[in-house]
Amino acid sequence: MWAGLHSQGIMEQRFPQPIRRVGVIGGGQLAWMMGLVAPTLDLELVVQTPQATDPAVAVAQAAVLAEVNDVAATQALAAQCDVITFENEFIDCEGLQTLADQGTIFRPSLAVLALVLDKLKQRQCFARLGLPNPRYEALGGEFEADGLEAQAARLGFPLVMKTRRLGYDGYGTTVVRTLAELSPTWERFRFAPVLLEEFVPFKQELAVMVARSASGEVALYPTVETQQVNQICRRVLVPAAVSAEVETTITGMARTLVEALNLVGIVGIECFLTQDDRVLINEIAPRTHNSGHYSLDACPTSQFEQQLRAVSDRPLGPTHLTCPQAVMVNLLGLEVSEYRHQEKLASLKQFPQATVYWYHKGIRPGRKLGHVTCRLEATEDPEQVAETLERLWYSP
Ligand code: ADP
Question: What is the pLDDT of residues 119-153, one digit of tens each?
């Protein structure tokens, strides 16, 4: 199916035949948006996702209906595809290794996925690469618990407690304000392996998308600012209002990371910008990312097209902004009727310059149901536009 070749001292896997069918583990909105662009690259998608009603099933050529961590299902997926990529990283990495050993190509590699699945391994990797992290302590699992108070004292309060595995959108992340809260909080985590992190009183949260192909071509998107409400991304402003030095630092870190990981695909990198302009990496996501949705409307190549290009050995596309600036607002499920959701959606669609994406998922409060992007002129105030969009959706 593929031939190994040696490039830059690292085994790369390249295909003698053009890649036509891409398997995607996960079938949510990210795979759906990939599915919308796949035909423009003459690619077919096959998704592995639990429900026939999951968004990407409607746009995929075929679907394997199974949980994303079902290895037998991924074997069936691999049998129909030239390469497998991810929209969801909550996989059974060890189980999939057997498939990789038998020749299934995963892009990014399972080594990258294994790293991302464990927040401690991520932090250790960033430190090895000289990429600044928040200070942290590991607790539980292979680490003794006796030093709990001493570990917390080394970081100081407030601190942040995070599960090492399976956290997303802030689920599994809690701020611990005092020593008295420490033990009860860990108890609520059922004493699972966690990280304690210094609480970073950041000036801004920043993110950048980076794609890399098997030939080593790298494409960087502009750095964006993300703003979260209750630890879930609410809005993205692009480009981020940061100094040229900060932009250079972030792009340098992003390049170091994808090259060191020999990453093939796309990765979202989330960072904190401290009050004194230091950039600390929070975490990475080895796939398209909420912070890159604006690229659908404000870049020549969307992050979804770029992931497909990277994993299918097509040349990467240009990543600059095609407008002076843009904002993206997430549409989360509300405690109102389905009819009221539809009314709000209709009002957003009337907003000048807005493009609304509705993922056609079951409505649940807090669930990511869609997003809206607005291209802006240089004279417009992105925060003000974001506030107006948010009012249309979030006010009663
Ligand atoms: P998840 O993997 O669930 O998305 P994150 O680590 O990204 O969890 O945390 C979610 C949000 O919580 C971040 O975007 C940030 O706003 C806040 N947060 C996380 N870690 C810290 C920290 N060490 N200091 C301050 N805020 C943090």
Answer: 999 999 999 999 999 999 999 887 766 678 888 99
Query: By three-state DSSP, how is residue 385 classified?
Result: helix
Which pLDDT score, from 0 to 100, does residue 290 have? 98
Closest CA to 195 of 153, 134, 253, 279: 134
Number of residues that make up the chain: 396
Nearest to 123 by CA among 88, 148, 160: 160
> Within 13 A of 131's CA, how many CA atoms are on the CB side?
26
* Fold exhibited by the domain 323-396: D-amino Acid Aminotransferase; Chain A, domain 1 (3.30.470)
CATH number of 135-198: 3.30.1490.20
Is the beta carbon of 134 within 6 A of some atom in ligand 1?
A: yes
The strand pairing partners of 206, in sequence order, are 225, 271
Average pLDDT of the segment spanning 290-318: 98
Confidence of residue 7 (pLDDT cuts 50, 70, 90): very low
What's the predicted TM-score (pTM) here? 0.94
Expressed in angstroms and rounded, the spacing between residue 133 Cα and the centre of ligand 1 is 12
> For residue 315, what are its two tokens?
């040349």
Instruction: Report the nearest-CA residue for atom 22 of ligand 1.
Output: 199
CA of 160 to the centre of ligand 1 (A): 8
The CA distance from 89 to 135, in Å, is 25
Average pLDDT value for the chain? 93
Write down the domain spans for the chain. Answer: 2-117, 135-198, 323-396
CATH of 2-117, picked from 3.90.1150.10, 3.40.50.20, 3.40.630.30, 3.90.79.10, is 3.40.50.20
Residue with tokens 């210094």: 198
| Secondary structure E strands in 173-308 | 173-176, 194-198, 204-212, 218-220, 224-229, 232-238, 265-273, 279-285
